[in-house]
């Protein structure tokens, strides 16, 4: 080969990795993305969709779990509330009964227990037993002629006192209402009257009976006491005997109904005497 001749150029193939690196350095990434093949863009889009679908499915699962926990909490709260109220309803009357009984026991025991304590006798309940025995003896003694005479003499002195006599008379009327003797001062019968308007009725107690006389006629009236505040405050009505309904309950049962606010009311009430029988009885009383 001659010295003046040029040497033929030899092309050495470059590795594909080097070509890709050089292309990345020369061509901007945006252009590469623009000239990418449709299949490549479609693959990238599907990857993005998968990435977006994954958070949405995770949030739906979290929302479902949250709603499930809230529903479970509501069910547990409702069940616990019902059971708690059931326990309160059952235990409340028991607690009140024990409390009132214990208070009554301590109150009655307090009359004679100081006397026994002064004598050096400390026996639990001895004052209560003594008080009950004393009340029984007073009841037996006052039922006799001598006891009634002493009681009448004591009432004569009490009724001469300006302020004490009003308290004694009111308390005596209340105690006479539940007296087993059913004397003239006690509630005679439990009745139902139409009050305060047509279609409404009220419980009352007959305290006395009067004869209302007019110019040409007379009418048999009943004095009916209708309690408005438990038993010791109420209204008095003069009701015709024809308008009085007599149910099949005693005076004690009527007092229990009034004191309990109607909770001890029997489910069925029957009338002891019909209207024709009442009219015939009134006519016989007038004759």
UniProtKB/TrEMBL annotation:
Residues 16-25 have a biased composition (Basic and acidic residues). It comes from the Eukaryota. InterPro entries: COV1-like. The keyword 4Fe-4S does not apply. This is COV1-like protein. GO terms for cellular component: Golgi apparatus. Keywords: Membrane, Transmembrane, Transmembrane helix. Pfam families: DUF502. Residues 1-60 are annotated as: Disordered. The keyword Membrane applies. The chain crosses the membrane at residues 84-105, 125-158. It comes from Panicum hallii.
